[in-house]
């Protein structure tokens, strides 16, 4: 073969490569559009006025007269602020309590030695296979019997432990060299102080990951709150949205509903934009949705 | 036991207590519920032990509808979402610039509130007296007549349902597969290039086997997740799924427990255990298939 | 098949976007590798040796310059059309395939008239496996093999296409010390048996010296010296090459040449006829020191380490550029283990002088024609 032949082959290959790459970018951009469009649409709809929205037989892709009225309605006509507050309290309490419980358990498994440790841990791991749908029935009855319906306690109690997070944290704790513990012991550090001052700071990336994942889970939780709350003043945002949809603003007010949707989605999207690396890393380490 | 031996158990106490009360005891209790016939939640009494609850559930048309819906969702969304995720991940893996931006955007649905975004899907697909909705407007460009996807024909509702489910589950699958692709040692591809291996052969003989464990993990968890479909349906069709004809097995369980037709924990327990049996069976089949066809590191 | 590299150059855009200037990985590399030789490409990490190997292989395109295999210009050919076999540092054995399937993998890519039947492939794979003595492991998977066995499989896979050129990237770095000795002999044997022109890259000078016909020493993309191993060791062209070869490393002193004599710290330690007066850098191989009571180079004695076959005397000197001088003397030599100082005479053939500014070699004695 001559040099020119090679050049021609090379050029053809390069052209194919460029076309392939361009097609890839276009398809990825298309999917990005599909992902982002619902977000755009909810923000857009939320700033259209009620009358303007209902006048559009063919929905318009933009608006020239944005209004904040819907946001005002969302906070006044329906108790969105209440739902918001409830969810915030629920999220903070559940996450905080859960961290306490799992840190103690993970510490015992990682650092202390006692008879029956391995058996207990294996037993715990086997609990990961139990589907939520099975146990929720009895939990519903239990919480009802205890008279905890429509209380924060009733909402929180069943979700303050997570076998998976205990496992994750224990693995992380075990990576801390034994020598550190021995050195701390020589210096007369108590176990509890060692846990608080040494282990937790070292493992803070994992703790942060767990916290973020749990916050997302709490903020979006729907099934359990739906079963356990029937007083609208106790609703969390997911149930609140559902309530707004069904009994809403007294009439079908889609723009106001979208304003509520934007408000509800906003905190997690901000959290995601701030911590997207951590969240994605944490999820890929074994989190699944719900 | 002396004080020192007790201390570890003190650390474990909260975790074990919560797990015992809210996970282990309920697991055993649900079995009991499912065989208590005629259980009355007000008087907490029952008048017999047997399999009547299972028989009732299996003959309940609402349950059968829920099973049908669930299976349709599983059969359509699991292969579709896994295949789509694989294509998108391969695309992401092949580009250099903007990869991180695309990855971040694609992951966004994972963190959003399912119920909230479901409403957006609803208004996009809904046909009301005031408006055909954006999707119908788009369809009319292609000469298709408008359909109410939310309260209209069954196939239309299933279509929206599956689209929304795929939109919701893709972020996780894309993330896992992109990571799996990135973890394949670059030397394998270089070695294949030295040997003049074609792109197609590289994909089938190297890439696919190397990511097959993750692919099967996604298929297995995808099946389990799809069988438990519920809140996505509520998000689009509202809480009264039976009326919409779009209930799922999990939805049936919750409706039996609480809600307009609620107050029957025994039926709920029987339905939940039937679901569990189905999921276990499918998972076992999956595992058997994967044992034969997946390369295990 | 001889390999000719002509003005081979590779530039990368700088990772740090603020710096406009390209990074030069390989700078005008010109060399002709004779047919059937085993060549060691040696240098510290980042010296451009792997880039050179990748360019010979075809995985990377040179920015400028040309590569010939024999008379063929292969510069623009993709790797598969060059007829090269490559062994990767990580071996890159496909973990889901058996040893036999791994070795057959390249053959299955043959197209058109080169296409082989299954039997022919199996036969070729068997032959390659026998050559590297793993004929009985064909059914195993890579993870069931030891590091040394995996290495052999990788070599067999590279050789099964009967390449014109065999390339090895750090072939021994993933093996433990004992296996390394064994495997390098093995590479030498396989290369002899097949007669294939072989280039391997390493940062381990001992490895390169022990099996190569020729070694090429590189630094920051520039070839420093090419020659047969003993020659490069005995006549390093600059201080870098002198320091890079040999264990323990060569001992470097600040020194002066005056009137044909070499002065270290005021003492005339060696006759160096033909060297112009001025500051020089004197580098002395560990075996170039002869302990003797009236030796001119007086050093502080730090330790005497017995190593069986020979003895290592560790010493200090104010004009030494690093911490400790390390010498190797025959074990029979008597060294007073308690005296505070130790005196040495120097072997002229083990002493090298370099320009303190440029690091270039300054010849003396026989090299310059002086006696």
What would you say about this model in short?
The complex is a heterotrimer of chains A (290), B (297) and C (371). Chain B has 297 residues and is mostly helical.
Topology:
The complex is a heterotrimer of chains A (290), B (297) and C (371).
Chain A: H1 3-46, H2 50-55, H3 69-76, H4 80-111, H5 117-127, H6 132-145, H7 152-156, H8 163-174, H9 178-186, H10 191-202, H11 204-220, H12 223-228, H13 237-246, H14 254-284
Helix pairs in contact in A: 1-14, 3-14, 4-8, 4-11, 4-13, 11-14, 13-14
Chain B: H1 3-35, H2 52-59, H3 61-94, H4 99-111, H5 114-125, H6 134-141, H7 154-182, H8 186-194, H9 199-227, H10 231-237, H11 241-244, H12 249-257, H13 265-293
Helix pairs in contact in B: 1-13, 2-13, 3-7, 3-9, 3-12, 4-7, 5-10, 7-9, 9-13, 12-13
Chain C: E1 3-12, E2 23-33, E3 38-42, H1 49-57, E4 64-69, E5 72-73, E6 84-87, H2 99-108, H3 118-131, H4 147-159, E7 165-169, H5 177-194, E8 197-202, H6 205-211, E9 214-219, E10 222-227, H7 229-234, H8 239-244, E11 251-258, E12 261-264, E13 267-271, E14 278-284, E15 289-291, E16 297-306, E17 310-316, E18 325-330, E19 341-346, E20 351-354, E21 361-362
Parallel strand pairs in C: 3-8, 3-9, 6-7, 7-8
Antiparallel strand pairs in C: 1-2, 1-4, 4-5, 9-10, 11-12, 11-14, 12-13, 14-20, 15-19, 16-17, 16-19, 17-18, 20-21
Helix pairs in contact in C: 2-3, 2-4, 3-4
Give an overview in words.
- The complex is a heterotrimer of chains A (290), B (297) and C (371).
- Chain A contains 14 helices and no strands.
- Chain A has helices at 3-46, 50-55, 69-76, 80-111, 117-127, 132-145, 152-156, 163-174, 178-186, 191-202, 204-220, 223-228, 237-246, 254-284.
- In chain A, 37% of the residues are buried.
- The model of chain A has no long low-confidence stretch (mean pLDDT 87).
- Helix content of chain B is 75%, strand content 0%.
- With 297 residues, chain B is mostly helical.
- Chain B has a domain at 51-110 and 160-293: MetI-like (MetI-like fold).
- Chain B contains 13 helices and no strands.
- The longest helix of chain B has 34 residues, at 61-94.
- Chain C is α+β, with helices and mostly antiparallel strands and 371 residues long.
- Chain C folds into two domains: 3-240, P-loop containing nucleotide triphosphate hydrolases (Rossmann fold), CATH 3.40.50.300; 249-368, no CATH class.
- In chain C, 22% of the residues lie in helices and 33% in strands.
- In chain C, the strands form four sheets. Chain C has a six-stranded mixed beta sheet, with helices on both faces. In chain C, strands 13-12-11-14-20-21 form a six-stranded antiparallel beta sheet. Chain C has a five-stranded antiparallel beta sheet with strand order 15-19-16-17-18, with no helix packed on it.
- In chain C, α2 packs across α3 (118-131) and α3 (118-131) packs across α4 (147-159).
- The chains are: A mainly alpha (290), B mainly alpha (297), C alpha+beta (371).
- Chains A and C meet through α1 of A and loops of C.
């Amino acid at each position: 073969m001559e040099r020119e032949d090679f050049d021609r082959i090379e050029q053809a290959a390069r052209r194919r490569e460029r076309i392939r790459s361009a097609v890839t970018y276009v398809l990825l951009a298309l999917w990005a559009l599909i992902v982002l469009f619902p977000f755009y649409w909810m923000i857009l709809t939320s700033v259209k006025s009620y009358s303007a929205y209902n006048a559009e037989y063919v929905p318009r892709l933009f608006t020239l007269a944005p209004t904040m009225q819907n946001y005002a309605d969302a906070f006044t006509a329906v108790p969105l602020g209440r739902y918001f507050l409830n969810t915030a309290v629920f999220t903070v309490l559940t996450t905080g309590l859960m961290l306490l419980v799992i840190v103690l358990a993970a510490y015992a498994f990682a650092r202390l030695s006692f008879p029956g440790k391995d058996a207990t841990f294996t037993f715990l791991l086997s609990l990961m296979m139990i589907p939520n749908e099975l146990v929720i029935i009895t939990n519903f009855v239990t919480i009802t019997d205890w008279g905890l319906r429509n209380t924060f306690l009733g909402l929180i109690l069943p979700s303050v432990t997570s076998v998976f997070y205990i496992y994750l944290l224990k693995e992380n704790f075990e990576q801390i060299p034994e020598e550190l513990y021995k050195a701390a012991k020589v210096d007369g550090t108590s176990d509890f102080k060692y846990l608080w001052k040494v282990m937790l700071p070292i493992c803070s990336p994992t703790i942060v990951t767990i916290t973020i994942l749990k916050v997302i889970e709490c903020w979006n939780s729907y099934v359990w709150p739906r079963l356990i709350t029937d007083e609208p003043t106790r609703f969390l945002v997911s149930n609140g949205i559902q309530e707004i949809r069904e009994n809403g603003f007294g009439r079908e007010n889609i723009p106001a509903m979208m304003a509520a949707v934007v408000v509800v989605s906003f905190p997690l999207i901000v959290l995601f934009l701030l911590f997207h690396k951590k969240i994605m890393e944490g999820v890929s380490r074994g989190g699944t949705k719900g | 036991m002396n004080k020192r031996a007790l201390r570890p158990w003190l650390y474990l106490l909260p975790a074990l207590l919560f797990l015992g009360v809210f996970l282990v005891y309920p697991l055993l209790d649900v079995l009991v519920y499912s065989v208590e016939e005629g259980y009355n939640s007000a008087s907490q009494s029952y008048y017999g032990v047997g399999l009547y609850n299972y028989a009732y559930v299996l003959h309940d048309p609402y349950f059968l509808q829920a099973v049908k819906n669930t299976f349709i969702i599983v059969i359509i969304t699991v292969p579709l979402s896994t295949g789509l995720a694989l294509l998108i991940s391969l695309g992401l893996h092949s580009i250099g610039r903007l990869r991180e931006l695309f990855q971040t955007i694609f992951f966004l649905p994972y963190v959003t509130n399912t119920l909230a975004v479901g409403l957006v899907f609803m208004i996009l697909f809904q046909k009301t007296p005031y408006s055909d909705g954006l999707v119908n407007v788009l369809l009319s460009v292609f000469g298709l007549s408008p359909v109410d996807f939310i309260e209209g024909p069954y196939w239309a509702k299933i279509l929206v349902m599956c689209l929304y489910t795929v939109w919701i589950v893709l972020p996780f699958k894309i993330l896992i597969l992109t990571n799996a692709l990135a973890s394949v040692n670059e030397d394998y591809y270089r070695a294949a290039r030295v040997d003049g291996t074609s792109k197609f052969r590289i994909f089938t003989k190297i890439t696919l086997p190397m990511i097959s464990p993750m692919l099967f993990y996604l298929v297995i968890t995808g099946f389990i997740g799809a069988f438990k479909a519920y809140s996505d349906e509520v998000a689009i069709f509202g809480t009264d799924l039976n009326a919409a004809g779009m209930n799922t097995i999990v939805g049936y369980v919750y409706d039996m427990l609480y809600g307009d037709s609620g107050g029957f924990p025994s039926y709920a327990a029987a339905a939940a255990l039937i679901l569990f049996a189905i999921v276990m069976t499918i998972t076992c089949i999956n595992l058997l298939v994967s044992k034969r066809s997946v390369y295990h590191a | 098949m001889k390999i000719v590299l002509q003005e081979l150059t590779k530039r990368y855009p700088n990772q740090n976007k603020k710096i406009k200037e390209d990074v030069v990985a390989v700078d005008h590399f010109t060399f002709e590798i004779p047919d059937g030789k085993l060549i060691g490409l040696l240098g510290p990490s980042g010296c451009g040796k792997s880039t050179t190997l990748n360019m010979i292989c075809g995985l990377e395109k040179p920015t400028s310059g040309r590569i010939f295999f024999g008379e063929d210009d292969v510069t623009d050919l993709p790797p598969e059309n060059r007829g090269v076999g490559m062994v990767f540092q990580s071996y890159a054995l496909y973990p889901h395939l058996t040893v036999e399937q791994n070795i057959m993998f390249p053959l299955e890519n043959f197209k058109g008239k080169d296409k082989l039947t299954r039997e022919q492939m199996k036969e070729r794979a068997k032959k390659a496996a026998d050559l590297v003595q793993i004929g009985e492991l064909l059914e195993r998977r890579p993870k069931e093999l030891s590091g040394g066995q995996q290495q052999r499989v990788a070599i067999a896979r590279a050789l099964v296409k009967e390449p014109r050129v065999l390339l090895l990237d750090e072939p021994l770095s993933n093996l433990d010390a004992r296996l390394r000795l064994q495997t390098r002999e093995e590479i030498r044997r396989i290369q002899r048996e097949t007669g294939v022109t072989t280039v391997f890259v390493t940062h381990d000078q001992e490895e390169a010296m022990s099996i190569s016909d020729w070694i090429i020493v590189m630094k920051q993309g520039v070839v420093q010296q090419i020659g047969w191993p003993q020659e490069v060791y005995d006549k390093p062209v600059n201080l870098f090459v002198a320091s890079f070869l040999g264990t323990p490393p060569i001992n470097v002193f600040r020194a002066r040449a005056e009137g044909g004599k070499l002065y270290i710290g005021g003492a005339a330690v060696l006759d160096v006829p033909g060297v112009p007066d001025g500051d020089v850098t004197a580098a002395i191989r560990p075996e170039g020191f002869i302990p003797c009571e009236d030796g001119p180079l007086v050093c502080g004695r730090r330790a005497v380490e017995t190593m069986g076959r020979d003895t290592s005397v560790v010493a200090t000197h104010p004009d030494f550029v690093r911490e400790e001088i390390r010498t190797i003397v025959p074990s029979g030599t008597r060294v007073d283990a308690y005296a505070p100082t130790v005196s040495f005479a120097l072997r002229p053939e083990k002493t090298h002088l370099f320009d303190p500014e440029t690091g270039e070699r300054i010849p003396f004695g026989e090299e310059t024609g002086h006696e």
